Amino acid sequence: MEQWTMPSIDWTTLMPTIIVILTGCAALIVEMLRPKQNNNLIVGVSLVGLGGAAYCLLSHLGLPEISTLNGLVERDRLGSIIQLVLVGVTALTILFSEPYLRNKRIAFGEFYPLALWSAAGGMVMASSENLLMIFIGLELLSIGLYCMAGLSREETKSEESALKYFLLGAFASAFLLYGIAMFFGATGSISLSAAAGAPEGAQGLLTLSSMMLIVGLGFKLALVPFHQWTPDVYQGAPTNVTAFMAAASKAAAAAAAIRIFSAFVPVQDFWMPILYWMAILSMAVGSFSALVQKDVKRVLGYSSIANAGYILVAILGAIKSGDGNFAAAIYYLVVYSAATVGAFAVISVTAKAGTEGTRFEDLHGMWKKAPLAAGTLVFFMASMIGIPPLAGFFGKLLIFQTAVNGGYVDLAIVLAATSVASAFYYLRIMHAAFAADETAIPTQAAPVRGGLKASLIICAASTLILAFGANKIITAIEGEPEPAVTVALTGE
Amino acid sequence: MLEGFLPILVLIAVAALLCTVMVTLSWVLGPKKKTPYKAAVYECGVAPFGDANERVPVKFYLVAILFVLFDIEVVFLWSWLTVFKSGTTDQMIFSGAAVLIYLLLWILGDAYALKVNAIDWDEATSIAPEKLRDTPAYFESTEEADAGLSTVGGAQ
After folding, report:
1. How far apart are CA A80 and CA A476, in angstroms?
2. What pLDDT score does B135 carry?
3. Which among A207, A441, A473, B87 is placed 20 to 30 Å from A157, CA to CA?
């Protein structure tokens, strides 16, 4: 029997995740006390906890990169920034959830603990180089999302969404596990850093493993051809859940993808072309399918597929150029998260008295009935299109540069072309809210107050702040000039 | 490296071949005398009645899921205890603390399930009826709030 040694634990590294999990427990305890009138106390507890976690994460940014718990958890810039994104997205979603859930007549207090634990799963996933930890994080993230997608229990759409997401998610998890098993077969370890030291004869197994991992991550990132679930699930799930799903799930999966693909560089000749075509297809299918949709949530679903393609371009460019600088992908993720959560928050305004309208007609006349929501919608859509003063423009510019640096000029051209095409459907959403005939169908708009108002304003402001503070944020992502490689930091 | 997997491949091939041969041979060689009695559904010697596709209350599913929680817990505890018995003091303290945290979370979940009457057979919901109407702040008048409440009643 092997000699057992107590793993050294760096509690500051684990603290943000622990805080989020405990906040979830606290929120559940509050729910168990059955507050009769509203969920405000649960929201308050959740927001305080997330604030604490965000404070811890911000203090991590300057600290040296270490690995703790026998190499199960990493503290590095990539992990900390993605964890910050997850915490921020969760907070923004929780802010606008309460009015929406009330108006939709599904004010389950359970939503908040589920969202918090889901976020904790994403945080585990984003901060580990260990494949099994990534898998456990992914499952924790997903199981909460399956429940939340079916939150609106009396709606067939919501049930369909939950079941579809669960079945396809389980399928994807199986692929991921197969990939992990093969990785273990090839290297004798489940730590990603072992990929570089794989024996000469194990390349075939490693290749097979990379293929399985691509399938598993492709589902989570919603890359074509593993994207079919996205529009249906996004449409059926309650709008606040969709917002969380679109931003948090994608951020965590992108972090895992960055770590995994960087580790698989030894067999990149095999999987690079696959991902190259997946990126092109995601951008094209996402942008062009969105043009013919009638439901705004479906449009945003397809938009998220196209955006996953953009992020993949940034990841590929960074890996190909060999500098390991994923600032473009991470910056774009931050920008995309803010705009997406905001856009879904705007759509949540249409929920009233147990119903919700998410077709284009249902947004008609919004600028009159909910001027603040319609006004902030301009920021979100403009940022998604990539109109210069807003953050989306800098995000796309950075991805463009990264792609060209990596020698993927063709990917950069596809990115530009699909961006132009996507402008059409983003403008169509704005057209529905502003210009279309507002007398034909009366928009039902919930009053924009409290948490919803705060969420909208913060999201809209962040599309501006992220643009004007772009340099500062990119320095925060890149850190000091030294290369952000964590392979050298095995053990302590 | 990959040669190591050759025995497994051979095993799979032999198993597939053997199954095919056995099934095909009994299908080709076996006598086929069909009688209505033979074609009937086997129901432990009792003559079958009714439809097999009956609706089962979804509550069974909830009970089954809760049972799975207990099941998994025992699996974890059992494997932990086997190591715990022969562990060093350090190991006992560390793994004991880890299991304690796990059990606390598990008890919290269980308490929640009891609190929301998940195992009561009667109609149970985890949403307080008061939460099914808007908070007064979101409405201009109380009639509107009442209208919202009646929508929910009508949806059933």
Report:
1. 10
2. 53
3. A441
Measured between beta carbons, which residues in chain A are less than 8 angstroms from residue B111?
Answer: 32
B112 in contact with A, Cβ within 8 Å? yes
Query: Looking at residue A491, what is its pLDDT?
Result: 38
Total domains in the fold of chain B: 1
User: B48 preceded by cis ω (within 30°)?
Assistant: no
Query: Using the beta-carbon criterion (under 8 Å), do B148 and A108 form an inter-chain contact?
Result: no
Select from A30, A34, A70, A184 the residue whose CB has the most chain B CBs within 10 Å, as the one to mutate to test that interface: A34
Q: Does B54 map to a domain? A: no
Residue A361 DSSP label: G
Domain membership of residue B39 (yes or no) is no
Instruction: Search chain A and give the residue with CA nearest B134.
Output: A102
Closest CA in chain A for residue B115: A32
Distance CA A230, CA A16 (A): 30
CA dist A253 and A275 (Å) reads: 15
Question: What are the pLDDT digits (tens) for A5-33?
Answer: 778 888 889 999 999 999 999 999 998 88
Whether chain A has a CB inside 8 Å of the CB on B152: the answer is yes
Q: What is the ipTM of this complex?
A: 0.80
pLDDT digits (tens, 9 = 90+) for A349-375: 888 777 788 888 888 878 888 889 999
| Contact across the interface for B126 and A108, Cβ inside 8 Å | yes
- Look at A154 and B155 and tell me if their CB atoms are within 8 Å: yes
3-state secondary structure A2-13: CCCCCCCCCHHH
Domain that holds residue B103: 59-115
Using CB atoms, which residue from B111, B134, B151 is nearest to A102? B134
CB proximity list for B145: less than 8 A, separation 6 or greater:
B133, B134, B136, B139
**Å from B60 to nearest chain A CA?**
18
> pLDDT tens digits for A38-80?
788 899 999 999 999 999 999 988 788 888 888 899 888 899 9
- Model confidence at B91: pLDDT above 70: yes
Q: Which two tokens stand for residue A300?
A: 């945003």
Across A379-394, average pLDDT: 91
**Residue A16: which residues within 8 A CB-CB, separation 6 or more?**
A53, A54, A56, A57, A60, A83, A87, A123
